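Researcher: Go.
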Amino acid sequence: MASPTSDENNSRPLKPIPGSYGLPFFGALKDRHDYFYNQGQDEFFLSRINKYGSTVFRTNMPPGPFISSNPKVIAVLDAVSFSVLLDNSKIEKRNVLDGTFMPSTSFTGGHRVCAYLDPSEPKHAAIKGFILSTLASKHDTFIPLFRACLSELFANIEDNIRDNNVANFNDLSDNMSFNFVFNLFCDGNPTEHGLGPKANIDFDKWLFFQLHPLITLGLSKFLNLFEDLVLHTFPLPSFLVKSGYDKLYNAFYSSASVILDEAENRFNIKRDEACHNLVFVAGFNAYGGMKALFPSLIKWVALGGESLHRQLADEIRTVVKEQGGVTITALNKMSLTKSVIYEALRIDPPVPFQYGKAKEDMIVNSHDVAFQIKKGEMIFGYQPLATKDPRIFDNPEEFVSDRFVGEEGEKLLQYVYWSNERETQNPTVDNKQCPGKDLVVLMCRVLLVELFLRYDTFTIKASKLLLGSSVKFLSLTKATTTI
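Model: Structure:
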């Protein structure tokens, strides 16, 4: 099933954008309470789609007063209209990473790091080029380093199940992810560079203080007003997490000297600015992304049950045996394994929101109608609805493990938007696609490969977390066949 993209058909009837922002100040407050407390995230959007009979409408997005000076957005919630957010010729991405507000640059040493820069800004190409070059230089390190980290992770999971009958995957995975990222960029363990065994918690606090306006803690209704006042009304000050961030920054600054030399000498980026960008990529993009993605992937694979586990184990073990090891070539031959990962990214994208301002007056298409958007208006996309568009995907709410297998399945990859671009595109200095897009997919493949080389099946208990899923391993059944 497929449909034209936003630019392929301009013959749709032009209609006014439905929806309302309500009264000044109070309309934004009402929408914020609906979003966090009265309706919840998905119902907030679905109720408005039903009310207006449109997947494109006007609304306010949190946090609103007093953190955001202008919470008004135009929501684009189908796969066709959402694609306008990927068009850098029409959309400006300056300071919109977190939506209608931007955390203070004091969280990043006073610098606007690459994620907040629009491609039209001169620094963007230099800094993103530096990041892409750094990742490329580590290409041969990814698989052996990550496999070593996963070996320790699975040993810890087994120990926890043996001793406690349960293993908290999130905690163990977070620690593993931090160690992997630090080793990747700094060529050594965190403890060798003055960081404690729980250094990832400093990243957790730093992330929370930047993202708190977008989070609800799920407290009782009695405490909703208190939470709203603390988390959604005023920004939390950066000095409360400065000491932890400084430890991380200093560790990267002292141990990633080769990378920082490259930034200065080849890309003409000041050393301190390069290091703050490196820490942001490591902490916000890489560690933060893995923190959300790995539990989600494990959850969806677990829900596939023993039948899916058997299919994955058969494919993985067969290909690894044929190829003589876990190599890029081997990973590329695992069609079901790849499909499972794309399906997890489709149904539960690690970054659910995309924002951008219209650079010009434009016409944006949905499936059946078109809308005019004025220059300067903020456009918002809620990715989980766009990538579960029933006009594109059959059974969109269902996890279909082989959805992307075969020629027809691969055609659907153009509608998987998790990386701030289509899955069929690649990151460049001229776009805003995640620079680690290919690394993320690679790590997910290696995670599943290592899991099913060791185990035939597993069981978990899953629940909702602040930003993602909480996963606890209950059992692991060791592989009955080995290679």
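Model: The longest strand covers residues 455-465.
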